[in-house]
Write a structure and sequence with these properties.
The complex is a heterotrimer.
Chain A (H helix, E strand, L loop, with lengths): L6 H24 L16 H12 L14 H7 L34 H9 L1 H4 L21 H7 L6 H16 L6 H7 L10 H11 L2 H9 L1
Helix pairs in contact in A: 2-6, 2-9, 4-8, 4-9
Chain B lengths: L2 H4 L11 H9 L2 H4 L3 H27 L13 H33 L6 H23 L13 H23 L8 H20 L2 E5 L2 E4 L3 H20 L1 H15 L6 H15 L14 H13 L1 H14 L6 H4 L1 H24 L1 H7 L3 H30 L7 H34 L11 H6 L2 H31 L7
Helix pairs in contact in B: 4-5, 4-6, 4-20, 5-6, 5-7, 5-10, 5-17, 6-7, 7-8, 8-9, 8-10, 8-11, 10-15, 10-17, 11-13, 12-15, 13-15, 15-17, 15-18, 17-18, 17-20, 18-20
Chain C lengths: L2 H24 L5 H10 L6
Classes of the chains: A mainly alpha, B mainly alpha, C mainly alpha.
The structure holds protoporphyrin IX containing FE (HEM).
The site of protoporphyrin IX containing FE (HEM) has 27 residues of chain B, from helix 9, helix 15, helix 16 and helix 17.
């Protein structure tokens, strides 16, 4: 009787039926600039920030933290300005998340000094006794691997040259290893002596956290 | 003991065509069909189920006591992914492969055309899942939910799927039964849909062997991902489970399904509407509003085809409800389809903007998910295995009493688990929103977390009860095949 | 009515017609016997 006795036709028909909704709600929006608008105020991640983002992904921070503030009154009160689509133009993949076991991080950049993050990542419980966030002290004990930084930036189309990447890395190393770095003490507390003159994974992760929501302030200011 | 289960004396012989009768007389089913593969996948499913649940208990504990974050690879962020993938891909897929290979052969009355390929499929599957678990422990994680595996393993999954599809379509093309029964349609649409979903969502550019970046950025990536994630739930945790339900419920009761035409209409409506709804996971995010609105509309529509199956299930037992008592398998199916019915009402409600604003990101959703997985999915798979395993090994179930114990433990475990999370979700949602008379926030974030610890402890306890139920399930099946060694090896 | 609004309405009507057609076809009493047959046949492949 009809298609139920023709498996191949049936499969083709099923594919067509499945692809209609897919085309309208997924494929076509991919080619509509309004889905993911861009803004000149939103800059790509530096090589170090990108490494930090990759560590964020590796550790699965996204399983507890979201990165999108919804346009709801109490949410804006808690986290800050709600998220704008332009902010995510360089996010591959997106890290909006689906569960808030911890607070949203889309506006965490520049909320705290670096020292706060060194201490917090090393042991959340030392700051908030009952926090269930895992301690990440070992990130400060891993040297940051930058051998693929250039390749990553190229793959992501950030348009950095080899010397740009090199400079971004040396510059950030200079910042965090500087004698006058304001967060020197907390950094030294968690970083083993042999790595204090190098970049660690925790340095990069913090660079990334500090970038979150930073550029959008400029974008909003211009409006 | 359970008369209906053992045979189908109750069934109505409608039209017995010649060739089938001859076939059936010359050979027994264990000789004619390839059942070793069914058995291999069934026990793989049990293995990954137990592993996935142990990891689940581990992360449940970490949520109220971070002391279990002993090493980087045991830290919550990495482990949660091992849990979801271990159960979704490991347990879920293996159970689907086991039952699909069985259902396909029986409903077409045709042995698998490529048994060696199927055997290879089994080994390859377990290799990929094991490598997948190891790589996730190691932090190789693309972070796209239910698509976390890195690109080399993605290719492995695609190969795996092709191996399966060849046998699916091979069997269907060579089939001896002209009409395809409902379960076969669902198997076909799963085979097609998962292929499309998996490939589109996992398009990524490799940087190294262990690292890649998605080809989509920002809101587009989110849209593709939730189109995938919602439908992978649909086409792995709904469609093939319905295939099992439509096959094993009539088989184990001897009662024909209530309405074949209702299932036809539901089938097409479900397949059509599901794909539009992914964006209900992205409510109030920067994704364009029209995509969200369309998703809400189709989510509400989905109640209809979902309940088509629920109604079909209930009405099948019309006039024979005594089987709830006399036939231990019926309980599993009816409890399972009931949870499916609840799930598909709860889901569309969660999709409504105002409710979503309240519940999204809280444990409410976790409760919703687990009613589906621990209730609907596991209940139906359990009963299907209980029906299938004794048949493919020409023996009887080791113990119906243990099966009943298993049923009650997973029912109580699951219910306690999900209700606890619903309450936790309501509480957290309310605390996030609460403001003082002067308009400032009433609670800081950490307070809204620590106030949930009692619920997390209760959830852990419920998980232990559920886990014991599952261990009994595994034990019962192991003892069943051990009773009569190698009978099925024909 | 805006163009978008009209498009939504027309699309909804189109879907309603298609599903009406599918239901009408399969629920036609004269096909009942044939359409319902597989549900009986699937029960008697046991041996
Ligand atoms: C009509 C059918 C259904 C609809 C419309 C639906 C809708 C939803 C919605 C709106 C959410 C997101 C809520 C939020 O994050 O705020 C959700 C989450 C989820 N649902 Fe359902 N649901 C349905 C059935 C099911 C079934 C049958 C299962 C499993 C067997 C299931 C498993 C899940 C999973 C795994 C998630 C969690 C995704 C995450 O990690 O955020 N759903 N569902």
């Amino acid at each position: 009787m009809g298609i139920t006795s023709k498996p191949v036709v049936f499969a083709v028909l099923a594919a067509v039926v499945i692809l209609i909704g897919t085309t309208v709600t997924v494929f076509i929006p991919l080619f509509m600039p309004s889905t993911q608008p861009v803004s000149a105020s939103i800059k790509p991640y530096t090589a170090v920030e990108q490494e930090g983002r990759d560590i964020y992904m590796r550790e699965g921070c996204n399983n507890c933290h979201t990165q999108t503030v919804r346009p709801l009154r109490t949410e804006v009160l808690r986290y800050g300005e709600y998220s704008k689509p332009e902010e995510f133009a360089y996010d591959r993949p997106f890290l909006w998340g689906s569960r808030r076991t911890g607070p949203d991080l889309n506006r965490v950049g520049e909320k705290y000094p670096d020292s706060w993050h060194y201490k917090h990542l090393d042991s959340p419980q030392s700051m908030f006794e009952k926090s269930n966030m895992p301690p990440y002290g070992w990130l400060a004990k891993n040297r940051l691997d930058t051998q693929y930084s250039l390749k990553k930036a190229t793959t992501l189309g950030y348009g950095y040259s080899e010397s740009d990447v090199h400079q971004q890395i040396t510059q950030y190393r200079a910042t965090v290893t500087d004698e006058n770095y304001p967060s020197k003490e907390s950094r030294n507390n968690v970083t083993p002596p042999e790595l204090r003159k190098e970049l660690t994974e925790m340095d990069a992760l913090i660079a990334y956290l500090q970038k979150l929501g930073r550029d959008v302030k400029n974008m909003e200011a211009k409006k | 003991m359970t008369p209906y289960v053992q045979g189908n004396e109750k069934s109505v012989p409608f039209d017995c065509s010649q060739e089938n009768l001859e076939d059936d007389m010359s050979e027994t089913s264990t000789e004619k069909y390839n059942f070793t593969i069914v058995r291999g996948f069934a026990f793989s499913a049990l293995f990954w189920l137990v592993i996935g649940l142990i990891v689940g208990l581990w992360i449940a504990f970490e949520m109220f006591d971070p002391a279990l974050n002993l090493t980087p690879w045991l830290s919550f962020g990495r482990l949660r992914v091992v849990h979801t993938n271990g159960l979704g891909l490991g347990f879920g897929l293996a159970a689907i492969f086991a039952t699909s290979y069985y259902i396909l052969q029986r409903l077409t009355r045709t042995p698998l055309p490529f048994p060696r390929l199927a055997q290879l499929h089994l080994y390859f599957f377990n290799t990929i899942i094991a490598l997948g678990a190891l790589s996730l422990f190691a932090g190789m994680n693309t972070t796209k939910e239910y698509a976390e595996l890195e690109w080399p393993l993605d290719i492995g999954v695609v190969v795996l799927w092709v191996m399966f599809a060849i046998n699916v379509f091979g069997t269907l093309i060579k089939r001896q039964e002209k009409q395809m029964y409902i379960s076969l349609w669902y198997i076909i649409s799963m085979t097609v849909a998962i292929a499309i979903l998996y490939i589109v969502n996992n398009l990524e550019i490799p940087v190294t062997l262990f690292k890649s970046y998605s080809v989509y950025a920002g809101a587009n990536d989110a849209n593709v991902e939730w189109w995938y994630a919602h439908n992978v739930v649909g086409f792995i945790f709904t469609v093939p489970i319905l295939a099992m339900f439509y096959y094993f419920l009539p088989k184990s009761t001897g009662l024909p399904i209530f309405s074949h035409r209702l299932s036809i209409v539901s089938f097409w409506a479900l397949n059509f509407a599901y794909l539009w709804t992914g964006a209900h996971h992205l409510m109030l995010t920067p994704l364009p509003e029209w995509i969200q609105t369309v998703a809400i509309a189709f989510s509400i529509f989905l109640i209809a085809p979902s309940w088509g199956s629920v109604v079909n299930g209930y009405y099948t037992l019309q006039g024979n409800w005594d089987q709830m008592r006399t036939n231990y398998l019926v309980k599993f199916f009816i409890a399972g389809i009931t949870f499916y019915g609840l799930q598909t009402i709860q889901g569309p409600l969660q999709g409504l903007r105002t409710l979503n604003a309240f519940f999204h990101y809280t444990d409410w959703v976790i409760g919703h998910v687990h009613m589906g997985t621990m209730g609907w999915v596991t209940m139906v798979i359990s009963a299907s295995f209980y029906y299938m395993i004794p048949r493919i090994t020409s023996t009887e179930l080791y113990s119906v009493k243990l099966a009943n114990t298993h049923f009650w433990l997973i029912l109580v475990g699951q219910f306690t688990w999900t209700i606890t999370m619903w309450i936790a979700g309501i509480q957290q949602g309310a605390m996030w929103k609460a403001t003082n008379p002067d308009g400032s926030l009433m609670y800081n974030f950490l307070d809204t977390v620590t106030s949930l610890y009692p619920y997390y402890k209760l959830r852990f306890a419920a998980g232990v009860i559920y886990f014991i139920g599952i261990m009994i399930f595994a034990w019962n099946l192991i003892m069943t095949v051990r009773q009569q060694p190698s009978q099925a090896e024909a | 009515m805006s163009f978008a609004g009209l498009a939504y309405v027309l699309f909804t009507v189109l879907l309603a017609i298609i599903s009406g057609g599918v239901i009408g076809y399969y629920y036609n009493p004269k096909r009942k016997q044939k359409i319902e047959e597989p549900k009986h046949r699937m029960l008697d492949d046991d041996n």
